[in-house]
Structures are given as C-alpha cells and as structure tokens.
Amino acid sequence: MVYTVTFNPAIDYVMHTGTLRKGSVNRSFSEEIFYGGKGINVSAVLSELGVKSVALGFVAGFTGQAIEDGVKAMGIETDFVHLENGCSRINVKVKSDDVTELNGQGPDIDSVALNKLFVKLNRIQDGDVLVLAGSIPRSMPPDVYDHILAFLSDRKLRIVVDAEKLLLLNALKYKPFLVKPNIDELGAMFGVEIHNDDEAESYAEKLRDMGAQNVLVSMADRGALLIDEKGKCHKLGVCHGFVRNAVGAGDSMVAGFIAGSMEGDFEYALRLGTACGGATAFSDGLAKKEYISKLLWQLDE
C-alpha cells in the first residue's frame, strides 16, 4: 500500500478574471475548486493510474470536512487526524493576465495531534510506500520528518521525500527510495546555481552519495534527469503542450514514478512520471488517465 502524508491540506479556490484592478471590485468569469496539498496530489494521480493509496495528514473545521469528502470522492481512502480547533486552509488563486496567489496559514497542530498521526503511521507494514511531501506548518517541529523516519526505521519501506533544503537533506541518512528536487531546489541545497545538465547530474549524484537510492530532478523546459539506484543516469525531454497550470506538476511526476517503478523499470518510471507531470501542467487540474496515456505514447515515439 502507498501512504501519503499532507501536513497542511487545502482547498484551492481558483478564480479566472479579466485584467485584475488593484483597489477595485473584480469579478470572475469562472471558478474551480480543487482539494489538495502535495501528498493528496500524489494520491489523486496514483488513483488515475490504478494504484491505491491512503491519504494521511491533518484536517480541521468545515473546510477540513470538505477536503476529506472531496478526497474520498476521488476514490482515495483517507485516515486524517481531525483537529479540534481551527479550520483547514483555503488558497485563493486568481488567474488573470498572470497568476496571483493568496495562501492560507492553516490550523495549529499540537503534540497531541502529532501523536495521533504516529499511531496511524504505526500501521504501515514492510513493503509499503510512504510519501512525505511539502513544507512543515509553523506550529509543528521543524524536524518532524526526522522523527517520522526514525520511528519507522526498523521497517522495510520505500520512502519518498519531495521537500526543500534541510527537510530533504536530513532525510538522506534514512536512505529514502526516492528524492525529487527541482533544479532550483537542488542548487539551493548546495548553495549554487545550476546552469546545465552536467552540473545537475553532478549534484544529483551527490544526493545519491549522501544516501538517496534514486534521485529525480525536474528541470522545467529542459526535461528531467534521474540517477537510479545502480548509479545510471537517465535523461528525458519534456512533453509537448500548452502550459496552463504549474500547481501539482511535480507531485504528479512523483506519482508517475512511484507507479512506474513498481516492477523495477526505472526508464519506464521516468517516462510515466514525465507524462503525468506534463498532463497536469497542460490541464486546469491534476492529470487524468486519458491525457497521461496520450503523453506517454508521445514520449514513446
């Protein structure tokens, strides 16, 4: 079973407007609502690929209930910790000439609630996949990834970490199955700017030397690069299409890689991850099965 953890789920309320006028009343001509957060996004795309998962994390208030109902409606099993106070966040994204985002803070998560998450994590069995994705709310310990991975270190799990800087670097000692920085995040971890594929490969290899089994680097319009568990480097270009949406493309790539790697074929995992990332980038929401198949066929040409 695949388990995804989303510490701070959100309702994404997307409003499409004409030219946005500051200090004036602006009206939308269409809206969409999405239920997300990085782990939930991974679960949603896994569901499109026929892979079952359990979404873990924290929800609160009426917005938390809406998130839980929305995730269940996607066919995803949930096992959230329900917080007694606060409300899960709403992120407002205004798409006009460009995109303006206003992201909510979300509820406080205390030690009692965190302990409840550990009770749920304790059910994870040898052979399962655990996805830790995204930032940590300010109310949580900054080393919570460490605590989780140490707690589960006696089990034979496939750990996937998609996070920035120290969250990812501190996870490397647990030898995660996969880490997935983007090109900017990879450079930030080492205090450098990465200018070309050779440099990206060199720093990805450093992450593997530090403990990661597989390192997947998304490089925007330059495609993606994978250093697999045998040290082999794979490179793949981008899918062709019109970019409509940047939210969730990286999470979709993670989902595709997880699904594609289940039989140990990392070249296929890279292609499927790239197709899933592209299908989200070229859509208003997350990748759908039919579009993933179309882009996978395009990559196989």
What is the strand and helix layout of this fold?
Elements: E1 2-6, E2 10-17, E3 28-36, H1 38-48, E4 53-60, H2 61-73, E5 77-78, E6 81-83, E7 89-95, E8 99-103, H3 111-121, E9 129-133, H4 144-151, E10 158-162, H5 165-169, E11 178-179, H6 183-190, H7 197-209, E12 214-218, E13 224-227, E14 233-236, H8 249-260, H9 266-281, H10 289-300
Parallel strand pairs: 1-4, 1-9, 2-7, 4-5, 4-6, 9-10, 10-11, 11-12
Antiparallel strand pairs: 2-3, 7-8, 12-13, 13-14
Characterise the protein shown here.
- This protein has 301 residues and is of the alpha/beta class.
- Helix content is 36%, strand content 24%.
- The strands form two sheets. Strands 1, 4, 5, 6, 9, 10, 11, 12, 13 and 14 form a ten-stranded mixed sheet that branches. It has a four-stranded mixed sheet with strand order 3-2-7-8.
- Helix 1 crosses helix 8 (249-260), helix 8 runs antiparallel to helix 9 (266-281) and helix 9 crosses helix 10 (289-300).
- The longest helix has 16 residues, at 266-281.
- The model has no long low-confidence stretch (mean pLDDT 92).
What are the salient characteristics of this protein?
301 residues, alpha/beta, ten-stranded mixed beta sheet, four-stranded mixed beta sheet, 36% helix
Quick overview:
With 301 residues, the protein is an alpha/beta fold. The protein has helices spanning 38-48, 61-73, 111-121, 144-151, 165-169, 183-190, 197-209, 249-260, 266-281, 289-300, and strands at residues 2-6, 10-17, 28-36, 53-60, 77-78, 81-83, 89-95, 99-103, 129-133, 158-162, 178-179, 214-218, 224-227, 233-236.
